[in-house]
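Complex 650.
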Amino acid sequence: MSDPTLYPVSDAWAARAHMDRNAYEAARIAARETPDHFWGDLSARLDWMTPPTTIKNVSYDKADFRIRWFEDGVLNVAWNCIDRHLATRGDQCAIIWEGDDPSVSGGLTYAELHRDVCRMANVLKDMGVVKGDRVTLYLPMIPAAAVAMLACARIGAVHSVVFGGFSPDSLCGRIEDCGSKVVITADEGLRGGKRVPLKANVDAALEKLAPEYRVQKVLVIAHTGADIPMIADRDIAYAAASEAVGDDCPCEPMNAEDPLFILYTSGSTGKPKGVLHTTGGYLFWASYTHELVFDYRPGEVFWCTADVGWVTGHSYCVYGPLANGATTLMFEGVPNYPDNRRFWQVIDKHKVEVFYTAPTALRALMRDGDEPVKATSRASLRLLGSVGEPINPEAWRWYHEVVGDGRLPIVDTWWQTETGGILVSPLPGATDLKPGSATKPLPGVELELVDAEGVVLEGAVSGNLVITDSWPGQMRTVWGDHQRFFETYFAAYPGKYFTGDGCRRDEDGYYWITGRVDDVINVSGHRMGTAEVESALVLHDDVAEAAVVGFPHDIKGQGIYAYVTLNAGVEATDDLKKALVTHVRKEIGPIAAPDAIQWAPGLPKTRSGKIMRRILRKIAENDVGSLGDTSTLADPSVVDDLVRNRTGAP
Ligand code: WTA
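Predicted structure with WTA bound:
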């Protein structure tokens, strides 16, 4: 499994990097011992209207729980990402846009970004949006998505981006939860040559809203130019509205702890949580980690392939790069359209220097062999990155040897929606690489491995990954449910933040993330709660009960395996399996579609009625030799039936 080979830092990297080995060790100590001084000095990387004098104010104790950074500082995120660069890089490209269709590309300079953001901010103001209001964004990967995020930030509105692949139901739930009065969408998106009916989905979502959550306005950006119905008094065409406003809009002064955005993510129970990030700490962390981990210099072309609907897109397509004066590339399409050379051709076309993607994409492309990669030059690249799930050593080596021609370091970056930015990663000038390991924590990130009882484990060992101290980019609350925030992350191991991940530490102190230890599955680098998929399945008329687990999947990392108990009298057919897959796609979105469905006349339950997921996971993994003790089950014979009828794809 693990590959012991070490890829040492090259002399050239050690010489060029922002942080070499010694600087890294010194920063680790300084962040630990004198945090106020360390982070206080570094906070000057942002432009403050009022610089902070109080740096860190954190307690993870229940009685005194608080997480605050730079709390008396005042700043604006749009100013930091745009205005402050205008004097030196107004004509530099801020966003390169590569369309789904390879013949379509474009972009914005910093000066154009400024104009567009101001205009959209003015349109939002005219629509009645004020500081603190929530605005839901449901957009394709086009520059207008970044413009909309920054326009909200400019006027102090809180954006909630919903990934364009989510269904109307999912969108509706997210709008209700944060009470958005305004939705920004586009007529349609394009992905792999297919049209995504974004505006139609918004219409469907808004029809489902409970009356008290009525959305007042929908701002519609024309992207494909499709002829879509507009609803009078509610829908506003952006093109016309932006003509009617000026292209100057002052930046709203924001306290460092004022909310910047909400982003919904799946947890182990219940509906998705609205992860809340704030203005100062989040922007600081996105900017600091983008510079450090990617060893970024202003003006370099940086490409993060994530959609802005995920946190990776927030921090490393938009906020981190733009805060650092980067040229960031936004790609609307998919890796295999029109064919599997697309990523590499885009790198050559736009002379990309840093490329940051997910292992699932690499594994899918790897299947097609080296030829599509070798047909391109990739000479502009100087660094590769990986994010979202553990990268298996085989994929790591292919990335390194084939994509990187054996000459580029790979930064395998571990982090979460909750962490705001990267927490564990090699630094290209400081950390020797081991394929499959996210290596070591960044300065200020204090990791521990604990057992189920919370006993701290020392040395080379596996355990649950916790973080014992705060970092500026940490989430501040679950929107509307501060209690849930505390219970989810700080109750399991008092005084510590629990990540939900399992992890191994080796003899060299390197960390190897082994995956989630809760009921969250990671499908193609996207988080999905088993409870969400189960709730969707039981909404179907024919389904009595469902239990969902993850199982190893060659391309996706983990696939979704559903055990379904049908209502009495319903016939278990293959057509019904297909119908259930379609049903889940409709309820949540395509990313939640089960990869396998197994009919389960009964589910393994304890006498108190709790489903024994451990057993279901083993069966799904086809590891039926080690099911462990089944004697505590109410009806152990259920397990024999499930093992006998283990299934493949629907
Ligand atoms: C997993 C994505 C191993 C992990 C940024 C985490 C990883 C979850 C890595 C967060 C990595 C992310 N190696 N596992 N480099 N990066 N993960 O919130 O299980 O979508 O808890 O944030 O992805 O997923 P999220």
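Residues 265, 310-312, 387-390, 412-417, 438, 499-501, 513, 515-516, 522, 527 surround WTA (CB under 6 Å).
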